[in-house]
């Protein structure tokens, strides 16, 4: 792996030559104001990278992207509302109507640099309030089809020829296989990428690695066998790409979010990574959710905010070709429940962070929180179908010419697009 | 194929013999409504079953039931069960054999894992702790240092049972129901109650009536705390904020999961109104607080919503208090959607990830006609031809728990009393009692078949072969003496545990690899590693 000392500006110049051209659209001004001290990066290639972050358990969008301009918000959440901007522990104002939860302060710089966009009242049209059913629909993107067995990212990977011959087109840090990748059998999936290796005892090393390789090569007729076979082949690539650096390194990732650092290293190592997936649990805040502080949600958001900010800083110039898409299965009740938390709701937020994002905006049609504006009288409605966001990401960021085939039974409408990406 | 069919016919004949004295006729499940309290008296076995050495098909049947209804065979067990008859073994398991003294001894160091919560706190903080510890918060702080070890001890104790228990079916079903009624040990005080929950709510009912199991979980502090029912109160108009952090009102967390996961299933036909009304019915189902004596279930009439409710079209008259919840649980346990939901899950666990229709139909019918008798549902599954179908055998990927337990059993290994066993399982991706979400751990191949998971399995096998899995003692010299003919060892293990022919590609390959080594203990280590880490051993 060749390491070059380059500045962000020179990287932009060189990669344009080899890219699909999308970097030409990068705002020159932005490149200039973020041009940092020279950093070490791998020889750049052009392929865009998508990192999906799934907040499992239904993150409470109303306390993440806070509608502080809606008086109903404060009426519905007397004990857990995030105070108005300017008040103690108040939201970080974004546009006069919405604000970021104060624990997401590390992301304000990205918002101001127009690399962060938020979507509100986005989600699935299906009314289910079951975690697993809603997660399944968001991952298969086949809403309402309980028998769908293929994930939307798997469909994307099948639809697009690999950008390199690499073994690492898709990586997921998850203790089990996310449904979004189901059907793409070559994904590298591990609870911890540092453990993605065969650990054997010294003297038997070669016999066992050779033996297992042959055993798993033999038939590879089942999913498990195939996964074992591919993992044995890919583990060396992963090990080399992650290198010996201590987990986290210098980029200032929170202790609980080292997986972001590992993904960043894989991207920088330039091993053909196209899609990455991270699962974050702990968002099901039925009680003690908290407002700005002292609760489950502030604790969760603190980690998320610092992790995303560190990830952006860590990637430096490479961030230009990276997009982070943060999603959660549904939102939570507009009204707080009887135990200082919220129950399962409907419409929610999404967060897009990346070099090409047309950010600095809160997008989507958020009708308000008056009783007649709520879905079934209790939840934020869904005014943007999550598949429209995914489709825009696939076509605009990942450069797939037509994403229709990724969303069975769903009519793409490009007029409906939010214009999230340049 | 012809021999397979013969074997099935053969087994069916035997089953028919058993059924003659058993109320559980596969063909007439309604008869099975009779209570089954006495041990089954077996008919004289036809001489032909016993006399010839176990046929390949009898061995295959034995291996199949031991893989599914036990945590895999121990050395010699496939042969023993083949002689006994797979279905006869199952009946013994349903009747509940005496527990092994080996297990009793192995559990001695972990006895505290199952202590009731008060006992635990007494042990940790010393008697008289109540004089100084007044609030929940104080208790949480003071017990915190003990929690981690306690949960690991409990996980180790459960795994020890899975490995050593003679009551294998009970162990398998305890795992199944603990997962079905999952609670997350690390939430709040759940840790304090989890041992009691497993020992007194789940295990005694694991092969009993579903309605009783459901009630035992619904009233258990572990569940009431985990799914927040403990604080759910009748809504009294606007949400109040008293003293800054006190809240008062409805929380629908438990109500929803009770319908979606525990009973009806997500397709069970309930509405959002049903969820809310179930939550209202269950207001008041709570746990005694510190300062009130602590730790037990309590019904709090003042927290209870005294209005009339309707759930699934049934009216619950106003003001019936705790009776409403008891009736609700009966309604849910008897509901046809519950029968079908549980039948699907059990068929997925015991037959195939996509449960065959015939199995689901048979299990649903058995459930409905016996008022949810779990034993009869299991009989219906094993009597359904789909269970024995060639394509069902070896079709399921073992979960990490099943891999560790079956590997330990296959080597006759014994837990050494240390807590490292729980950590081993955590490294494989299934830390027992630590699944955060109420769905519990999944039970299907696509979710467990990740590359990282497979590498972890091979690494575990390598460590096990080298004798480096801490927490497990393998009696090498008894079960697999080094220095003997390692090829013979491979042939025997592969034949008995995996049903592989001596010249099968897998066994040939293992022999070839091992032949490149000189040192006898290294040969054995490599052989064990490759066999336990082989694709075949990952399946059941």
Name the strands of the widest sheet of chain B in spatial order. Answer: 1-2
Q: Return the structural class of chain B.
A: mainly alpha
Q: Characterize the largest beta sheet of chain B: strand count, sense, and whether it forms a barrel.
A: 2 strands, antiparallel
Q: Beta-strand level of the residues of chain B, as a percent range?
A: under 5%
Indicate the low-confidence ranges of chain B by residue numbers.
Answer: 1-41, 238-246
**SSE succession of chain A:** EHHEEEHEEHEHHEEHHHEHEEEEH
Number of strands of chain A: 14
Topology:
The complex is a heterodimer of chains A (422) and B (540).
Chain A: E1 3-6, H1 8-18, H2 28-33, E2 39-42, E3 49-55, E4 65-66, H3 71-76, E5 92-93, E6 99-100, H4 108-112, E7 116-123, H5 131-140, H6 152-159, E8 170-173, E9 188-190, H7 205-218, H8 223-242, H9 258-269, E10 275-280, H10 296-315, E11 322-328, E12 348-354, E13 361-363, E14 384-385, H11 386-397
Chain B: H1 2-21, H2 47-50, H3 56-69, H4 77-84, H5 86-95, H6 101-107, H7 117-125, H8 136-164, H9 168-180, H10 190-202, H11 210-218, H12 221-226, H13 253-262, H14 272-281, E1 285-287, E2 297-299, E3 309-311, E4 314-316, H15 322-334, H16 336-350, H17 357-369, H18 374-383, H19 385-388, H20 400-410, E5 414-415, H21 420-427, H22 445-448, H23 451-465, E6 472-473, H24 476-479, H25 486-498, H26 505-515, H27 520-532
Antiparallel strand pairs in B: 1-2, 3-4, 5-6
What does this structure look like?
The complex is a heterodimer of chains A (422) and B (540). By secondary structure, chain A is α/β, with parallel strands linked by helices. Chain A has a single domain (6-10, 17-196, 252-416), classed as Alkaline Phosphatase, subunit A, CATH 3.40.720. Chain A is built from eleven helices and 14 strands. In chain A, strands 3, 7, 8, 9, 10, 11, 12, 13 and 14 form a nine-stranded mixed sheet that branches. Chain A has a three-stranded antiparallel sheet with strand order 4-6-5, with no helix packed on it. In chain A, strands 1-2 form a two-stranded antiparallel sheet. Chain A is globular. The model of chain A is unreliable at 1-44 (pLDDT under 50). Chain B is an all-alpha fold and 540 residues long. Among the domains of chain B are: 2-95 and 354-388, no CATH class; 227-335, no CATH class; 400-538, no CATH class. Helix content of chain B is 55%, strand content 3%. Chain B is globular and about 75 Å long. The model of chain B is unreliable at 1-41 and 238-246 (pLDDT under 50). Chains A and B meet through helix 5, strand 9, helix 7 and helix 8 of A and helix 13, helix 22, helix 23, helix 26 and helix 27 of B.
């Amino acid at each position: 792996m060749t390491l070059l000392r380059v500045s962000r500006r020179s990287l932009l110049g060189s990669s344009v030559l080899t890219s699909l051209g999308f970097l030409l659209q990068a705002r020159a001004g932005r490149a200039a104001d973020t041009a940092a001290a020279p950093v070490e990066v791998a020889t750049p290639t052009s392929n865009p990278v998508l990192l999906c972050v799934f907040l499992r358990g239904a993150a409470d969008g109303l306390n993440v992207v806070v509608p502080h301009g809606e008086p109903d918000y404060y009426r519905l959440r007397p004990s857990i509302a995030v105070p108005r901007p300017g008040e103690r522990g108040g939201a970080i104002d974004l546009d006069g109507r919405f604000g970021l939860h104060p624990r997401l302060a590390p992301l304000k710089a990205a918002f101001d640099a127009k690399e962060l966009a938020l979507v509100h009242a986005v989600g699935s049209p299906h009314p289910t309030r079951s975690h697993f059913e809603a997660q399944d629909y968001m991952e298969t993107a086949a809403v309402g089809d309980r028998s769908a067995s293929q994930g939307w990212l798997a469909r994307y990977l099948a639809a697009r020829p690999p950008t390199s011959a690499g073994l690492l087109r898709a990586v997921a840090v998850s203790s089990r296989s996310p449904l979004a990748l189901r059907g793409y059998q070559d994904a590298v999936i591990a609870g911890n990428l540092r453990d993605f290796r065969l650990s054997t005892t010294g003297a038997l090393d070669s016999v066992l690695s050779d033996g297992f390789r042959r055993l798993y090569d033999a038939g590879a007729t089942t999913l498990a066998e195939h996964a074992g076979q591919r993992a044995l082949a890919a583990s060396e690539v992963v090990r080399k790409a992650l290198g010996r650096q201590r987990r986290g390194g210098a980029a200032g990732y929170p202790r609980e979010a080292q997986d972001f650092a590992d993904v960043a290293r894989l991207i920088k190592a330039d091993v053909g990574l196209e899609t990455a997936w991270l699962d974050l649990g702990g968002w099901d805040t039925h009680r003690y959710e908290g407002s700005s502080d002292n609760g489950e949600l502030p604790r969760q958001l603190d980690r998320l905010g610092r992790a995303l900010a560190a990830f952006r800083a860590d990637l430096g110039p490479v961030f230009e070709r990276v997009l982070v898409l943060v999603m959660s299965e549904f939102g939570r009740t507009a009204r707080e429940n009887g135990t200082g938390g919220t129950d399962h709701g409907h419409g929610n937020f999404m967060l897009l962070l990346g070099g090409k994002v047309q950010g600095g905006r809160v997008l989507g049609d958020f009708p308000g929180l008056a009783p007649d504006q709520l879905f079934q009288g209790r939840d934020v409605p869904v005014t943007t179908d999550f598949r429209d966001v995914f489709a825009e990401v696939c076509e605009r960021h990942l450069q797939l010419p037509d994403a229709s085939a990724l969303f069975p039974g769903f009519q793409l409408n490009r007029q409906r697009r939010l214009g999230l990406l340049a | 194929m012809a021999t397979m069919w013969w074997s099935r016919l053969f087994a069916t004949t035997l089953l028919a013999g058993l059924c003659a004295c058993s109320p559980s006729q596969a063909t007439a499940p309604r008869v099975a409504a009779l209570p089954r309290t006495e041990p089954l008296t077996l008919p004289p076995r036809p001489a032909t079953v016993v006399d010839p050495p176990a046929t390949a098909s009898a061995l295959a049947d034995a291996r199949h039931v031991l893989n599914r209804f036990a945590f895999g065979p121990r050395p010699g067990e496939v042969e023993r069960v083949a002689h006994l008859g797979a279905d006869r073994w199952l009946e013994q398991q349903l009747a509940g054999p005496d527990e092994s003294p080996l297990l009793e001894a192995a559990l001695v160091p972990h006895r505290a894992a199952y202590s009731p919560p008060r006992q635990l706190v007494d042990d940790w903080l010393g008697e008289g702790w109540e004089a100084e510890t007044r609030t929940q918060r104080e208790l949480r702080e003071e017990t915190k240092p003990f929690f981690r070890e306690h949960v690991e001890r409990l996980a180790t104790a459960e795994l020890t049972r899975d490995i050593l228990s003679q009551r294998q079916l009970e162990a398998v079903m305890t795992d199944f129901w603990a997962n079905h009624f999952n609670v997350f040990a690390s939430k709040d005080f759940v840790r304090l109650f989890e041992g009691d929950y497993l020992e007194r709510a789940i295990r005694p009912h694991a092969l009993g009536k579903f309605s009783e199991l459901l009630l035992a979980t619904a009233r258990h502090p572990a569940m009431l705390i985990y799914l927040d029912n403990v604080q759910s109160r009748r809504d009294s108009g606007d949400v109040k904020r008293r003293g800054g952090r006190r809240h008062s009102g409805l929380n629908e967390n438990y109500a929803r999961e009770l319908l979606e996961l525990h009973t009806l299933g997500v397709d069970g036909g309930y509405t959002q109104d049903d969820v809310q009304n179930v939550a209202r019915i269950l207001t008041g189902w709570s746990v005694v607080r510190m300062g009130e004596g602590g730790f037990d279930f309590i019904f709090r009439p003042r927290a209870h919503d005294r209005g009339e409710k309707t759930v699934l079209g049934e009216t619950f008259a106003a003001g019936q208090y705790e009776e409403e919840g008891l009736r609700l649980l009966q309604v849910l346990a008897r509901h046809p959607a519950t029968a079908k939901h549980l039948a699907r899950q059990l068929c997925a666990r015991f037959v195939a990830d996509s449960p065959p229709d015939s199995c689901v139909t048979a299990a649903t019918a058995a459930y409905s006609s016996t008022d949810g008798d779990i034993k009869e549902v299991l009989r219906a599954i094993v009597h359904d031809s789909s269970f024995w179908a060639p394509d069902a055998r070896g079709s399921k990927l073992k979960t990490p728990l099943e891999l560790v337990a079956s590997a330990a059993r296959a080597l006759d290994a014994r837990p050494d009393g240390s807590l490292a066993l729980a950590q081993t399982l955590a490294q494989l991706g299934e830390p027992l009692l630590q699944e955060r979400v109420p769905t519990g751990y999944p039970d299907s191949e696509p979710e467990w078949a990740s590359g990282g998971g497979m590498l972890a399995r091979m690494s575990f096998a390598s460590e096990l072969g080298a004798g480096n899995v801490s927490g497990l003692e393998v009696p090498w010299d008894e079960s697999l003496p080094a220095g003997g003919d390692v090829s013979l060892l491979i042939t025997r293990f592969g034949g008995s545990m995996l049903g592989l022919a001596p010249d099968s590609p897998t066994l040939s390959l293992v022999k070839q690899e091992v032949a490149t080594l000189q040192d006898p203990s290294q040969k054995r280590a490599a052989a064990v590693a490759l066999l336990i880490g082989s694709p075949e051993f990952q399946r059941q």
